[in-house]
Design brief:
A hairpin with a 2-residue loop joins strand 3 and strand 4. The chain contains three helices and ten strands. The chain is elongated, with a radius of gyration of 19 Å. The protein has helices at about 20-35, 40, 45-50; strands at about 1-20, 65-70, 75-80, 85-90, 105, 120-135, 145-155, 155-165, 165-170, 170-185. The N and C termini lie far apart (about 45 Å). Strands 1, 2, 3, 4, 5, 6, 7, 8, 9 and 10 form a ten-stranded mixed sheet that branches. The longest helix has 14 residues, at about 20-35.
């Protein structure tokens, strides 16, 4: 049987970035001179072109990570074909304040280490809409077979992926509108 998990609401797309300290210091000097925030600098394509970058995603050597914020307005729905099995709020995955968790979750910690002569930071792009659509097939299925993998960047806790049994599910579709950005050091 075919199953679908939809993530509706606000999500993030973020990049783990590294800049040479000299380039970062030059950007900082210009930022302070113009009295602007980092978001106005690093999300400005004209400014980045001056340093040889055509897009802010080029500040990272890794592909973007997509996450679904654990926000009470965000909804997760699980369907069997077109039949709704369950719908719940994303913040119900956050087990920090619960005695008995409703869903199986695993929290991943960031394990990156600092490098010398390099300034590390994250660029976060906020998006709204369909953040992820996961499809899988199974002869038998229960909600308890799903493991929601949680993570965080800055002050944002989010669902990073979903595991069904021993397999990680991949999002087959997303349809979001960019609503803002943030820089986290």
């Amino acid at each position: 049987m075919n199953y679908i998990i939809n993530l509706f609401g606000t999500g993030i797309r973020y990049w783990n970035c590294e800049l040479d300290q000299a380039v970062f210091d030059d950007m900082e000097r210009i930022r302070l001179k113009n009295k602007v925030e980092w978001e106005q600098v690093l999300f400005n394509l004209e400014f980045l072109n001056h340093y040889g970058f055509s897009h802010w995603s080029e500040l990272s050597n890794e592909p973007a990570t997509i996450g679904f914020l654990l926000d009470p307005l965000n909804r997760i729905e699980v369907k069997q074909g077109s039949k709704l099995i369950t719908r719940f709020r994303a913040n119900e995955l956050d087990t920090a304040a619960t005695l008995f968790p409703l869903y199986q979750t695993t929290y991943l910690q960031d394990s990156r280490s600092a490098k010398s002569n390099v300034k590390s930071f994250q660029l976060i792009q906020f998006e709204k809409g369909l953040i992820g659509k996961f499809k899988f097939e199974s002869v038998t299925f229960t909600i308890e077979q799903l493991n929601y993998i949680l993570s965080s960047v800055g002050r944002n806790k989010f669902l990073s992926t979903i595991k069904f049994g021993d397999s990680f599910l991949e999002s087959k579709q997303e349809d979001g509108l960019v609503t803002g950005g943030e820089v986290v050091f």
